[in-house]
Amino acid sequence: MHEFSPNEREQALEARLVELEMRVSFQEQALAEMSEALADARMQGSRNADLLRHLLDDLGKVRTALYADAADEPPPPHY
Question: Where along the sequence do coiled-coil regions lie (predicted)?
């Protein structure tokens, strides 16, 4: 087995440290991108929920108008 000299050992440790720092940097960047994407998705989900709520309200009004009992309505003004 090959023994490293103190200088070689320091260089190897330095190379490992640089590689680990690069990995952490890339992971931090990926995490920030995913966090931003999640925030965008949540905002879009909230907008979709609001839109769906309005559409359901409108649908309820249309159904009420379509299925309303004609006897419940007052007679036209010419009667």
Answer: 10-44
